[in-house]
Amino acid sequence: MNLRSIPSRWREHRGAGARSLFNPRYLYGLLNESGNRLVNWSAWSAPGVLVVTSIGCLVLFLLLITIPFSRNEQLVFSLVIAALALYIRRYVGTLVTLVLVSLSVLASTRYLYWRFTTSMQLDISADLLLGLGLLAAEFYAWLILIIGFFQTAWPLRRQPVPMPQDLSLWPTVDVFIPSYNEPLSVVMPTVIAALAMDWPRDKMNVYLLDDGRRDDFREFAASVGVNYVTRSNNLHAKAGNINAALPDTNGELIAIFDCDHIPTRTFLQATVGLFLQDRQLAMVQTPHHFLSPDPFERNLQLFRQMPNEGELFYGLVQDGNDLWNAAFFCGSCAVLRRTMLLEVGGVAIETVTEDAHTALKLHRRGYNTAYLGVIQAAGLATESLSAHVGQRIRWARGMAQIFRLDNPLFGKGLRWPQRLCYLNAMMHFFYGLPRIIFLTAPLTYLFFEAHVIQASADLIAVYALPHLIHANIANSRMQGNHRHTFWAEVYETALAWYIMVPTTLAIINPKLGNFNVTAKGGRVDKEYFDWKISLPYLVILAFNVIGLGIGVGRLFWWNTHEFGTVLFNLLWTLYNLTILAATMSVALEARQIRKHWRVQISLPAMIRLPNGRTVACEAEDFSEGGLAIKLPVELAVEQGSPVRISLFRGDREFAIPAAVVFNQGRVLRARFDNMSLEDYRALVAATYSRGDAWQRWLSDRDIDRPLRGLREVLGVGVDGLLRMLRRLGPTAQWRRLEVWKK
């Protein structure tokens, strides 16, 4: 690296005009270029240089964490690093992200060091016991934050590998579609779309694995030409269903889709090329994308306006895992190599998260996995909060089982980055108790005057606020496209109570509990408030409201000598009330009476009217039951009139019979009418199976802004509380509370 080039460029720029020295963009560019040269400095490869530099950085980092500051010195230090973070976050680049992460790690670790060394009272008392509980929760949150940064700071963003022109080199593929109790209407589009995937017919076989042993499924499989497989028992649920089919099939690769996950026609061509490139590759996973809203999105009316709960994992975490060769198998929308799957005994049956456990076994054998973050299938989200909670309970219990039975920190076969990625995935599901502690910690003072942090309020603020601010800045920078700030607290609060007990029991005895299948394709016939599922949070909400009232009394009358401490706990309680109110809003279930969910789309279409006239138009949305089209001019078409609607994919036309159900202005809605099996195939091919069906799904969304995220959560909470109170007004039926007794 020629270090002399930097001052020479400075002099050159100075000669062009001294005022440009104060141009922040120029200075940032100069620093960024210097940083890039420093990173690419050839001397790094010299023996000892990198070691010496790393030791120097570590020593400096430890000094900044441990050096004692007075309150004012800590305030100045906090303001300096906060100003630096707020300034550089406006610029793009991985280097900036890493600097923001480093500042967050510094602020958070300095706070935790201060908590351990200065803010704890060692005398045995209630204050000590309660304080230790809070400190343990904070240590857990710090550990998840640090490992999470390591896991996701540099996502790989893998791209598809093109398939060879010679079709003889393409491997054979078996497509497994396991089902248990789902209705045939949910399974049909997945099977039809699987058959429509672009792959040589003689190299692909589709298998419907029916653990429900239903005659209508057998007849449907025969009618469309797929293999129907069943067994005499339901041992080990989905994992057992797949394993039972392995001996009777022989494809080199196995593609697995949950029965509601509809693949695009490009799925195999997008994923299989990676197997040809890497002979040690055991599995390729693609995102789980949902064409219907989950309970948070539906009940809060935020569908497609903000990222859903699972998008952070599929949008960022899996890409981060992929850098470390630690991408997880997620049970669906994935392809596995048969020989390697059989080598680990098939899909894992020891835990109820058979997918992640299978990936762990493959990694222990030294095989590679890959994550392709391109949406190649779409499924149905859970319909109700109770079903959503049940699904997450199973995931949490399964991860705790793996942690207990096959802990990634121990055993052979894994590199340390892989161990940390798996550890973070498992430890994430232990957030139940820490989240409950954070929701109730300020009440210990407001109710009992317990000082769980032995420090003045202003001293707590100058240490804790930098930790919180920098964590939010760094996370917003990394996660902004996939999760909005403060929504993680809402998601975790909704589940905390329910995953706390299963994860604890799984650590004690991994065999406790049963496997539950997540229901799909259901309806919510009327709006209702789920009192049963929200009961724990109603209780915590009530205690926080009472604590707020007591705190106001302490602020002005009882504890005026501790004004700062009371104010600190009141603000904490107000924040908890905001999160709890938003959580309660999710329990107010909105109606969902559609048999088929409508998907917004913009496609060229044509409508053939009863009089034979054909009009070019545009399809605005579709479902399996019908679609809406935008007409170029108003047309006099009566309700019930038979029409034929053509949709296009490339140069192919798919004509589908329909009947008009609504026609006003230039908007016409039609119901698909008297569709034959071939008509249904055409509908799937022209809609769900399109290679570009979901590529622009998230393109029109805003990225995260932390203050706007807080405003969103607050607005949702206030709106939800008002709606709940209206339901408890004079016309409300209090007998709904009897559900608590059931």
In angstroms, what separates the terminal alpha carbons? 73 Å
> What average pLDDT do the residues reach?
87
Radius of gyration: 29 Å
The count of strands amounts to: 17
As residue ranges, the low-confidence spans are 1-19, 731-742
Q: Strand fraction band?
A: 5-15%
Classification by helices and strands: alpha+beta
What can be said about the biggest beta sheet? Answer: 7 strands, mixed
For the record, the count of structural domains works out to 3
Structural commentary:
The chain has 742 residues and is of the alpha+beta class. The protein has 3 domains: 78-105 and 119-153 and 433-496 and 526-593 and 705-742, no CATH class; 170-384, Spore Coat Polysaccharide Biosynthesis Protein SpsA, Chain A (Alpha-Beta Complex); 599-686, Beta Barrel (Thrombin, subunit H). It is 50% helix and 13% strand. The protein has 23 helices and 17 strands. It has a 7-stranded mixed β-sheet with strand order 3-2-1-4-7-6-8, with helices on both faces. The chain is globular and about 85 Å long. It starts with a helix and ends in a 15-residue tail after the last helix.
Topology:
Elements: H1 5-16, H2 24-39, H3 49-66, H4 71-88, H5 94-117, H6 126-152, E1 173-179, H7 184-195, E2 204-210, H8 215-224, E3 227-229, H9 237-245, E4 253-256, E5 262-263, H10 267-277, E6 281-285, H11 295-299, H12 311-323, E7 334-337, H13 338-343, H14 354-364, E8 368-371, E9 377-378, H15 385-405, H16 416-428, H17 432-448, H18 457-479, H19 487-508, E10 528-529, H20 531-558, H21 563-586, E11 588-589, E12 599-608, E13 614-622, E14 626-630, E15 642-649, E16 652-664, E17 667-672, H22 677-686, H23 706-727
Parallel strand pairs: 1-2, 1-4, 2-3, 6-8
Antiparallel strand pairs: 4-7, 5-9, 6-7, 10-11, 12-13, 12-15, 13-14, 14-17, 15-16, 16-17
Helix pairs in contact: 3-5, 4-5, 4-18, 5-6, 5-18, 6-12, 6-16, 6-17, 15-16, 15-19, 17-19, 17-20, 17-21, 19-21, 20-21, 21-23
